[in-house]
Amino acid sequence: GQQVMQIPQYQHVQEGEDFTTYCNSSTTLSNIQWYKQRPGGHPVFLIQLVKSGEVKKQKRLTFQFGEAKKNSSLHITATQTTDVGTYFCGRSQGNLIFGKGTKLSVKP
Amino acid sequence: KAGVTQTPRYLIKTRGQQVTLSCSPISGHRSVSWYQQTPGQGLQFLFEYFSETQRNKGNFPGRFSGRQFSNSRSEMNVSTLELGDSALYLCASSLAGHTNTGELFFGEGSRLTVL
Asked: Mean pLDDT of all residues in chain B?
């Protein structure tokens, strides 16, 4: 199956700065899921987006699904050290295929 | 409700050996997926089982196999181990039905080191 491409691979930010990771596909996605994996931990589900143009918020996290359903983004406002980890997007089509993730580090 | 349980958590093998990893899903979850995680390749899909049948398979050689039992517990086996098989193997269960992939609940993983 077609993998989703995630950028950037790494992001280093100062605490308080914003952070965005992007997930892109060459084909239309039925839906997309986002997961967070803390260092030494396992991936934990954050959200699923299904509708074209959908925007969902979880406190400082904003998730968007593109109008064409070929891309998605996760934006964190005013990062905190607790946001450290790797963020994965996954395309769901019978099984979940993940992008390679964006590793976020936050300098206090 | 107990989470996804994977055993063993850590193991060391030598090249040529084989290994079996076990996964007990959340009660009521019938779908179990396996992923290999390495620093360079991220989370790579191995296979998914639903109601004892392999429903999807990733792009891994035949040395990687799995099965699911009637109680939804799953095992994966890697034969003729190679150095490159060193990785964290993650199992995830979901309430997915016959057509949808629901939220995945991951276990802590089994970290395999091949020497």
From this structure: 93
